[in-house]
Every structure is written in structure tokens, then in C-alpha cells.
Amino acid sequence: MQEIVGESLARRLVEWGVDTVFGLPGDGINGLMEGFRRQREKLRFVLVHHEEAAAFMATGYAKATGRLGVCAATSGPGAIHLLNGLYDAKLDHVPVLAITGMQETSVLGAHYQQEVHTPLLYQDVAEAYNLMVTNPRQLPGVVDIAIRHALAKRTVAHLSFPNDVQVAPAGEDPYRSVSPGAPPTSSAVLSQPPVPAAQADLARAAEVLNAGRKVAMLVGIGARRARDEVIAVADALASPIVKTLSGKLVVPDDHPLTTGGLGLLGTKPSEELMEECDTLLMVGTSFPYGKYLPAPGQARVVQIDIDASLIGMRLPVDAAVTADARLALQQLLPMLQTRTDRSFLTKYQRERDAWRADMTALQDPSRDPIAPQYLMSCVDEAATSDAILTCDSGTVATWAARHWTIRGNREFYLSGNLATMAPGLPYAVAMQHAYPGRQVIAFVGDGGFAMLMAEFLTAVRHDLPVKVIVNNNNSYGQILWEQIVLGYPEYAVRHRQPEADFAAWARACGGYGAKISDPKSLPGAIREALAHPGPALVDCDVNPNEPPMPGKVGYDQAKHFTEAFLRGQPHKAATLATVARDKINELRS
Ligand code: FAD
Description:
Residues 171-193 are annotated as: Disordered. It comes from Micromonospora craterilacus. Residues 202-332 form the Thiamine pyrophosphate enzyme central domain. This is Pyruvate oxidase. Residues 392-540 form the Thiamine pyrophosphate enzyme TPP-binding domain. The chain is an alpha/beta fold. It has 3 domains: 5-166, Rossmann fold (3-Layer(aba) Sandwich); 199-350, TPP-binding domain (Rossmann fold); 363-588, Rossmann fold (3-Layer(aba) Sandwich). The strands form 3 sheets. Strands 2-1-3-4-6-5 form a 6-stranded parallel β-sheet, with helices on both faces. It has a 6-stranded parallel β-sheet with strand order 9-8-7-10-11-12, sandwiched between helices. Strands 14-13-15-16-18-17 form a 6-stranded parallel β-sheet, sandwiched between helices. Helix 9 links the parallel strand 7 and strand 8 (241-243). The longest helix is centred in the middle third of the chain and has 20 residues, at 343-362. The termini are far apart. Bound molecules: flavin-adenine dinucleotide.
């Protein structure tokens, strides 16, 4: 059988070690689908229900495995649907290849049906590499170049194939004469080679760190392969470890050296130690919220990042180290003087213990309606020691940040920098594909889940035992609280009745579904769902009036919050019954 371009593409993906493509067919990619079909023994095509989910799946796959994620969509609407998930990959620095269709070349420019110029549309998201393939002889060279760009720059690359090109006979590799040799066959080529640090940069970094008296570390997802090294360096410097939310998995939450997260969803001790430290070591992070970092001039800063262009983005840096986090910390450790005065660390360890006790108190099982903190704690308690938790943007991120404990080999993922709604479930589907033996749990709000809930059907249809926990407050909870904090009366953030019954949806899909509103039934329902051999969903009614309070409440936030209540927030009685009451009473007195 004559090889067509679609198959040449699929074969080249296989040669690069790609084993999964997430996507949805359409009349703009029939030739590509035929190519995928011909390689189906080696290349799994995961058929989804919405292209946005396919892009989230490719992104989630890349986040969890460190390998290239690949998604495919038809021309026009399909390609447009991919965009949000692709921006998630771009903003969180993970490699994804997007493959789309295009009208056939003979009708381009003729206002033909679905003629959307995706290379133009993708100019921003796929700025690293973005090409419409117009000649079969461009393959497989352009596939190699696209993949190399995605991997080297940890970003999105895009190839668009017109219909006629997809089914054209595959040509010769135009680069073969220039670069002979075997095509890439090892999956090792899909991962980043570690980059060591320059000695001069390390010497400067060590000098700054050794001179510090109150050293803090801020570690992000770029340090995910450097857990032991982060802990060793923190121990030598007697430095508390603060984690970004995306970097939550880097160090276990129950490790004595960490004070947890930073930012609105962070902890009070982390925030206060940032205000007090005289030296900050940032590793593998582009933490975006400058107001939570030391004030300019307060602390000397050392930053380790693999991407030189991202160093110094948030704070002026005294020592910049462009290198892989793990290698750089290994190189740095012998250059550090072990600090004997550990008073800065122990002070914040005490504060951290007090903070944890406060968080545990909020997980009160007797609160009715169910406190979302209690819901998260029940999942936390029942989940395995290597479970993966994904979550959406919204109040769920706060509950996960504070009540999902990284211990053992547990992991945690969310859309960090795009902060989009809806990736929780698609991430979970992709990660379950990548790690069939592990427990994968999506902790989502009713808002985010409703956006892409058809992907629960994908999980059932692909026999993926993902677990979905819906934190159902029947509202856009995060926005509700933002309106209140800004001093506006709440508007258009609570859904009208009827409330959706997502458990019924799960059962209608052929999965397990339970609806819970009684706190006493919650632990048993969570355990049962997690033990269920197939896809399972628990739709849990939680208190919609539970405020996701910042670790350290700022005066303006609290003032607006208080004023909004005193002005007559419609749900004030219910909300006052929660933790906010104490804070408000404090401010009133
Ligand atoms: P990134 O921004 O992805 O940065 C990772 C860095 O590591 C990059 O600079 C990269 O170049 C570098 N890197 C990659 N690989 C390596 C390597 N091998 N060696 C060295 N460097 C490497 N975040 C918070 O921290 N606190 C909050 O309160 C918070 N609230 C949020 C609320 C919501 C609802 C949502 C959705 C998100 C929230 N976030 C919060 C996430 C936040 O927006 C950022 O995405 C996050 O802080 C960035 O974390 P990061 O720096 O670890 O990751």
C-alpha cells in the first residue's frame, strides 16, 4: 500500500517515541486519521468528546510524564477548540505538538467552508514553531523540527495539514542528504538533557548564600526532579522551604523543613518568613505574585532556572545560575557552609505547626453543610501514597493547596499560569493513560466539571478508573469571594435551581456515581468510590458560603469583606457561621 503523508506523520511520531495522540476526527483530518489508523498498533488514538479536552490531555500527559504531549483536531472549529488547552501548555512550559487540518490547497483563499487560517490563529500560542505543510516532501523533516522546538523550548509547536496534502503519497525526506542516520527511536530523545551550572555562577551563589543569616528557599515545579537536593541544601542553610502551588509536589507537605505554599492560597508562616528573610534562594520557579516576595532591597537573591530569560523576572537577582535545578544544587551543596544557628528555621517550624493545627480544625466533620476542607481531607486520608490529584481553578485550588497532603510519591497538578477552568478531568484521563496502575483523582468544582463533563464518558469508554470528586457549591465560588473582597455585592455567581445531579450523570455514562450531602456519609462514600474498580464520581454538596481565606488576611481585603457583610450580603448569616466570623469579629472589635 502506498504510504500517504498522514501515515508518514504517524510513523515519525512513533519513531520519536510518541505512543498516544489525544484528539477528535473531522472531515478536515480524514487523511491524518487514516495515517493514525495504519499505525494503531504503536500509536494509541484517544478519542475524546471535545477538542479543548484533547489539548488539556496532551498538556496533562506532558506535565506528568515530562514527555511530549500530542493532540489532533480538525480544521476550523476543531483547531479553535484546542487553543485554551494549548495556552495551558505554553504558559506552564510543557512540550506539546498540535496537529490540525486545513482546507485543501486548491480552495484556500476562496472563503471555503471552515477556512480558518490556523497558522495565523496559532501565531502566538505556537510562536516557537508553526507551519502549514504544503508539500509531502517536507515530511518527515518538519515533524522533527516541530518536535525539537517543542522539547527544547518546552512549549507548543503546531503543524497544519491541508486535506490534499494529508492523502498525497509520502515523498522522500528532503533532509536525508544533509543529515543521514537513523531516525530517533529512543524515548530518551523526548526528555530534556540536564544542563550543569557554570562554576563562576555557583561561586557567586555560594558567596551570597553563605553570607545570609535568614535564608529562605522558594522552590517551583522546575525543581520536581530535585527533591533530595532541595532538602539537602535547605538543611545545610537551615532554611525553611516554601513551595509554589505548581511546585507543591517537590517536597512532601509533612517534611519538617517546609512551611508550605505562598500567595493567596499559601500559608501564614510562608508569607511572614518572606517578609523577614535576608536571603532568598529561588529554584525552578517563576512565581508570579511579586507582592508576596521580599520587598526590593530587603533580601539578596539567588535564582536557579534552566531558562536564562526567566531569571530576574520577579526580583532583582544577586546571583543567577542558568542550569538544571538538580545538577546545580548537587554542585552547590559542597560549596555551602553548614549553618549552626537554626533559630530562623525553628521559629517558622513552630509557626508552621500552629498553622497546620488551624487547618486541621477547619476539616471539622461536624459542620453541616459539608465544609469543603473536610471533603478534601477525606480524599486526602483515603487516597493511596502514590495518588495523583488534579484540580481545576476556583475555590477547589485553595482546598487542594491546603488539605491535600503530598506524602510518599503523591503528585498534584493544576493549570498554574493560565489558571483556566476545566482541565482537572482531562488531565486525570491523560494521567491515567500514562500511569494505568496509579490512583488518579480529579478534584473539581461544579463549574469547571460542567464545562467538559463529557470526558467522564471518555474515561468510561476507555476503561480508565479515574476518580472524580465534585466540590459542588452550585456557584462560581472563587468569583463570589472576589466580588465580596472587592466590596461589590455578589452578582451572577450562583446558579439557579435545579442543582445538577452529577452522580446521576456518572451512572448514566456507565460509571459509579454517588451524591452526598450528609457529612456522616462522606468518608464511606469517598472510600467506596476510590475502591471502585472503574471510573467513579462523588458529587458532594458543600457549603457554598465557605470563604477561601488568604493565609494572612490583609487589612484592605478584610475591610471590604467586613463592609460587604455589614451592608447586607444576601447570604451573610450562612457565611458568618463559618470561619470568616472570627476574622470579622476581630476587625469589628
Ligand atoms: P512555573 O511558572 O511553570 O515556573 C517553573 C520554572 O521552572 C520556569 O521558570 C522554568 O524555566 C523552570 N524550570 C523548568 N525545568 C527546570 C529545571 N529542570 N531546572 C531548573 N529550572 C527549571 N501559585 C502559588 O504559588 N500561590 C498561589 O496562591 C496560587 N494561587 C493560584 C490560584 C489559582 C486558582 C490557580 C489556578 C493558580 C494559582 N497559583 C498559585 C499558580 C500560579 O499562578 C503559578 O502558576 C505558580 O505559582 C507558578 O509556579 P512555578 O513557579 O512552580 O511554575
